[in-house]
Amino acid sequence: MVVPSAGRADPLSEPHQHQLEPSPFHQRLPWWGADLQTLRDTIRSERLPEDLSSALTIDLGGADALLARLSLPQQEAPRALVVLIPGLGGCADGPGIRRLAAYLVAAGVAVLRLNMRGAGAGRPLASGTYAALCNRDLLPALQQARQLAIQLAAGNRSLPLFGVGLSLGGTMLLNAQLEQPLLDGLACISSPLDLVECADQFDRPRNRLYRRWVLRRLRQLTLEDPHGVSPAERALLRGPKRVRSLQAFDAAITAPRWGHASLAAYYTAASPLQPLRAAMETRHALPPILLLHAADDPWVPVAAHLELARQAQRWRCSWLDTVITARGGHNGFHSRDHVEHLEGGSTVSWADQQTTAWLKGRLNEQFTGSRFGCGRPTSSADVHDLRRT
């Protein structure tokens, strides 16, 4: 989707009933540049509203379970249920995901923040760690989220059930949705579509500080497994021979733990780019998907998002909305325009605002019965105008 520069018409736009028109994004000082945009939520403490959520345990069968936090609107019945999943090394109590949850709840939506296997306070409830392709965990969780949406519907059939994934959380949700479309819509913010390209970029020298930070968290997460780690794994997680790149970690830990024969096999299976491309080419309609990405993302290359956007234009596919900004970093999008604050003073990000607006649009479609698929005119072209701001 193009977001035109101010005062300039989108040359590829055409009239269409399904329009996504996000507001322009301009960086907010002092968070200037890709790295400060990316790091802002880590280096600045958030003054978030009081967390009134309740804990829910999601049974995975056997001895394993996931821990989630459910937040409900205080003044009205919820209009929908949104499942939120954080990114690599994150958990349901992180500042960015709590801020987005609070903003959605203020908009009248119930929110289920999900800790994936081994993450956050849910570490004692399951052995092992999560992966970009973890459908044997995520599909049961989404099925139980659907049951929760039915319970919250207060006599109606079900509340609409949506998903929002930050970074790798969006990749997880895409992979689950491609296997079994349990969600009525899905928004992905700064999410990898091609894991090979993403791992190559993440392991570049310019990202060494990010890599050190993420690997420290992943090693700690793995070592804290209540069921322990093997001696071979421990040797790769501690000491002088410990893994020092994301690809080395995935080859040593993630791929074998999730049954993949090699790192290449894992990355191929867990990359949603090809299945999304195939869905367009075969005119297979999926529930609406939003991909929101910044061209200057230091972690996740933009090329796959641009490819999908152009292909959506070519195949006149309207279930995919792609919004690509010139700036914003990785899951940053801290804007100087249309600034909103939550109770407590936390500043809502531009991505929080656009995701919430997109979800509201899908809610309106639910109520009016509109449906969209391939083979119909697209909204104003899915190839983004990269504005240098």
Structure described in brief:
The protein is 37% helix and 12% strand. With 389 residues, the protein is of the alpha/beta class. β1 and β2 (65-71) form a beta hairpin.
Any key phrases for this structure?
389 residues, alpha/beta, Rossmann fold, 2 domains, eight-stranded mixed beta sheet, 8 strands, 37% helix, 12% strand, globular, disordered N terminus, disordered C terminus
Give an account of the 3D structure.
- With 389 residues, the protein is an alpha/beta fold.
- It has two domains: 1-194 and 271-389, Alpha/Beta hydrolase fold, catalytic domain (Rossmann fold, 3-Layer(aba) Sandwich), CATH 3.40.50; 202-270, no CATH class.
- It is 37% helix and 12% strand.
- The protein contains twelve helices and eight strands.
- A hairpin with a 5-residue loop joins strand 1 and strand 2.
- The model is unreliable at 1-19 and 370-389 (pLDDT under 50).
Specify the number of helices. Answer: 12
**Number of domain modules:** 2
**What's the arrangement of strands in the largest beta sheet?**
1-2-4-3-5-6-7-8
CATH class of the largest domain: Alpha Beta
Task: Output the CATH topology of the largest domain.
Answer: Rossmann fold
Radius of gyration computed on alpha carbons: 20 Å
Tell me, rounded to a whole number, the average pLDDT: 88
Sheet having the most strands: 8 strands, mixed
Tell me the series of helices and strands, N- to C-terminal: HEEEHEHEHEHHHHHHEHEH
Level-2 CATH architecture of the largest domain = 3-Layer(aba) Sandwich
How far is the N terminus from the C terminus?
Answer: 18 Å
**Which range does the strand content fall in?**
5-15%
Q: CATH superfamily membership of the largest domain, which one?
A: Alpha/Beta hydrolase fold, catalytic domain
Regions with pLDDT < 50 over 5+ consecutive residues?
A: 1-19, 370-389
